[in-house]
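Researcher: Let's do a round of design. I'm pasting the C-alpha cells now; please hold your answer until I've finished.
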C-alpha cells in the first residue's frame, strides 16, 4: 500500500479518487469548517474510503510534517485557485491565498515519489505565464528555495539556470502538466482543469497523461447516427429534439467516414446520463432515498445566464466569489424552463457517489461542489500514477533479487 497526504482537501473529491487508486491517506488537511464537516459526517456514517481519513482542520502552513518525513509516496492537492481563476481578482503571487509556495515546501520536506496538483485552467493564461513557469520550476527543483530578501524574478533566474545547466543534484522532479477536460474521461461535465504531475528524478520514470476515453464526436454518433442514445433513455421519436443545425456538417462527416475514427472512444456523458435514476425533485421529495436531493426554487435565466442542456455535458460547476453563479448551476429542462441542480444532482455531475452526504445549506454545499475535483477524473489520473509507481517498485525488486542471486 502506498501512502498519500492530501493538502487542501475540500469536500474530498481528489482525495476519494486518489484513495480509489489504492493510496492510503496518512494526512488529510483542510481549513474550511464546512468542508471538514462534510468529511466528518461521512466518516461518522462509516462511508468507505472516508471513514479512516486522518483529518486535520486547519492551515496547511501550520501542519507538522515532521512525523511524515520519508513516509509519503504521493502528495495530492488543489491549492486555492482564487489568484488565478477567471472569476477571481488575478493577483497571482501577490494574493495571500496563493498556496503554491506552501505546496512546494511540503514536497521539499516530504520528498514523495510523486505529486498530483490540480488547479483552474486560468493558471495557464498568458497573463500568468511567468508565474506558471516559476511554479513548475519550483516543483522541479524544490530545494532551490527563495532566499531571504530575494525577489521573485531573481529566484526565477536561479531556477532557470538550474534547468538550462541540466543540474540534477539533490531533490529534483520530472514535471509535466496538461489541461484536461473532465468530459473526455467520462465525467458528465465540460470542466477544464490543469493538472501538474511530478515524479522524483532518481526513479527514472517515464510517464504521460492518460489519453481521453470519451469524445464529442462519439456522442454525436450515438445521438444522430445510431440513435442509440435516445433509445437507451427511452425517449419517444416525437419527443426527440431536432438535429442541431450548427453540427450538421460535423455529423455528416462522421456518417461518411469509413474508418470511424472515434469507435475507440465512448460518447461524452450528458446531464441526462448523469442524472439517470433520480426523481424530479419538484414532483417527489426523495431526500431520504437520495441524500441532498431537494428542490431549490428561484432559478431564472437571462442573457449570459443560462443553464446546462440535458443532452450535453454540463457546464463547469462554479463556486463563485460572491455566492453561487446560477447559470452554471442550472439545468435546462425539455420544455425550455430552468431550475437549479439539487445538491445530489450536482454531486452526480461531479461524480461523487450517491451515498456521500454534503453538509450545510444549499449555497454552501454548492460552493463545496464548485471547488471540487470530479472523483472520476481524479481516479483516472491517480490510477495512472499508481500503476507507474508499482511498476517502478517491481523493477526495483527484480534488480535486488538479481543482485542477491549473483552473490
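Researcher: That's everything. Go ahead.
Model: Designed sequence:
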Amino acid at each position: 500500500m502506498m501512502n498519500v497526504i492530501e493538502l487542501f482537501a475540500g469536500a474530498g473529491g481528489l482525495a476519494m479518487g486518489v484513495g480509489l487508486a489504492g493510496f492510503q491517506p496518512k494526512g488529510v488537511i483542510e481549513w474550511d469548517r464546512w468542508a471538514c464537516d462534510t468529511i466528518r459526517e461521512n466518516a461518522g456514517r462509516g462511508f468507505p474510503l472516508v471513514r479512516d481519513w486522518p483529518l486535520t482542520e486547519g492551515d496547511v502552513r501550520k501542519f507538522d510534517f515532521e512525523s511524515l518525513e520519508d513516509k509519503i509516496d504521493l502528495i495530492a492537492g488543489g491549492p486555492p485557485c482564487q489568484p488565478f481563476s477567471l472569476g477571481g481578482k488575478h493577483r497571482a503571487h501577490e494574493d495571500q491565498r496563493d498556496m503554491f509556495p506552501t505546496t512546494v515546501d511540503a514536497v521539499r520536506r516530504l520528498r514523495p515519489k510523486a505529486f498530483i496538483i490540480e488547479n483552474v485552467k486560468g493558471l495557464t493564461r498568458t497573463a500568468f505565464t511567468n508565474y506558471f513557469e516559476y511554479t513548475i520550476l519550483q516543483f522541479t527543483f524544490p530545494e532551490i528555495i527563495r532566499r531571504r530578501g530575494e525577489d521573485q524574478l531573481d529566484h526565477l533566474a536561479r531556477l532557470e539556470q538550474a534547468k538550462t545547466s541540466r543540474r540534477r543534484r539533490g531533490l529534483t522532479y520530472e514535471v509535466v502538466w496538461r489541461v484536461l477536460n473532465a468530459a473526455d474521461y467520462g465525467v458528465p461535465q465540460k470542466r477544464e482543469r490543469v493538472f501538474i504531475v511530478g515524479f522524483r528524478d532518481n526513479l527514472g520514470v517515464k510517464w504521460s497523461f492518460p489519453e481521453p476515453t470519451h469524445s464529442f464526436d462519439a456522442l454525436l454518433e450515438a445521438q444522430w447516427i445510431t440513435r442509440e442514445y435516445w433509445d437507451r433513455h427511452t425517449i419517444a421519436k416525437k419527443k426527440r429534439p431536432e438535429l442541431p443545425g450548427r453540427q450538421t456538417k460535423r455529423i455528416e462527416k462522421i456518417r461518411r467516414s469509413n474508418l470511424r475514427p472515434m469507435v475507440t472512444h465512448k460518447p461524452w456523458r450528458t446531464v441526462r446520463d448523469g442524472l439517470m435514476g433520480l426523481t424530479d425533485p419538484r414532483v417527489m421529495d426523495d431526500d431520504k432515498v437520495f441524500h441532498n436531493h431537494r428542490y431549490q426554487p428561484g432559478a431564472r435565466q437571462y442573457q449570459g445566464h443560462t443553464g446546462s442542456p440535458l443532452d450535453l455535458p454540463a457546464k463547469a460547476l462554479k463556486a463563485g466569489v460572491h455566492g453561487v453563479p446560477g447559470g452554471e448551476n442550472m439545468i435546462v429542462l425539455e420544455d425550455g424552463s430552468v431550475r437549479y441542480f439539487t445538491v445530489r444532482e450536482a454531486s452526480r455531475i461531479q461524480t461523487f457517489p450517491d451515498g456521500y452526504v454534503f453538509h450545510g445549506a444549499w449555497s454552501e454545499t454548492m460552493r463545496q461542489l464548485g471547488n471540487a475535483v470530479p472523483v472520476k477524473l481524479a481516479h483516472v489520473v491517480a490510477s495512472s500514477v499508481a500503476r507507474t509507481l508499482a511498476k517502478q517498485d517491481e523493477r526495483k525488486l527484480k534488480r535486488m533479487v538479481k543482485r542477491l542471486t549473483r552473490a
